[in-house]
Amino acid sequence: MRVLYFSRDYTPHDHRFLAALAESDHLIYYLRLERREHPLEERPLPQKIDAVSWGGGQRPASLIDAPGLFIGLKEVLRRINPDLIHAGPIQSCAWLVALTGFHPLVSMSWGYDMMQDAERNAPRGWMTRFTLQRSAMMIGDCEAVRNQAIRFGMERDRIVIFPWGVDLKQFAPVNPSQQKSGRFTLLSVRAWEPVYGVDVIARAFVQVAREHPNVVLVMIGAGSQTELIHDIFTKGGVLERVSFPGQVSQMALPNYYQIADLYLSASHTDGSSVSLLEAMASGCPAVVSDIPGNREWIQNDVNGWLFNDGDSDALAQAILHAIEHRHDLAEMGLAARQVAEQRADWQKNFPKLIHAYERAVNS
User: Fold this and answer.
1) Homologous superfamily of domain range 2-165+346-362
2) pLDDT tens digits for 7-32?
3) 184-343 belongs to which CATH class?
């Protein structure tokens, strides 16, 4: 089968899907909608993946580019003649495919597109409904996404839900013989963009650091809120206790989870966050915002804690609670790992994508 995989950019998530698809019996083409200023994935495309050259994929894309992208996409379809298109996010790549009338379309939600973008305004809501009505199947990563898709008109039996998962061999708990430092290490790996609430983490850390001199924060990543984040730390007098590794490769990332005592995420919207699953697979308890996607993974006092979304005071109190109960963290880390093994194994979850393809072709 000739499959066109159409995605917004090239990210670690795209690499994960394309690497798995490259091992299938299908002929896989990769189409990129845009190229953002800061690359999120530096690994080359997996072997056997055919990158499609077209007018898009060279710069950030916006709605005003839609007519030209639509014409270019029609030309790509004539040239490749795919048997199936796998496209997402919903209001960009999948929407463009739906406009062409191509069938079968397997739309893939990236979490934020259904949990946030679909709710922003009437036009985006219309784009969501239009696309889902013209999709043979929809793929999502959590029940919250499924419920939202149903709300926008997608039939339940045409939705396939599976967490994108992680490589449980790459992300694994630290060897018991390895000793962590005497410091209590907090870890944040989300991009420094408003949707991920990294400013909430920064404000909470200022409070925590004032009470505990041995607590440090590792903040991986970068983004548009760089100046704001540094300003919060500077004014709070804790800048010297924060480490900024920048963008970290997928090969180096497991080491950061293993040295961390606690994983933090203050994201305002998420599906099944892959970084949360990576932390859990690494045996690292988590403190995350109380939003639907996170509730499917974190149980208070079992494998982590939930705090009120957007509330830096609540996050600070949750971190302080974890520090006071640090003797329980090892057991909670084991519980987190068990959940990851049961539900977040990429090798077990990926076949559901192929099954969705088969259902779409036969629809």
Assistant:
1) Glycogen Phosphorylase B; (3.40.50.2000)
2) 999 998 999 999 999 999 999 999 99
3) alpha beta
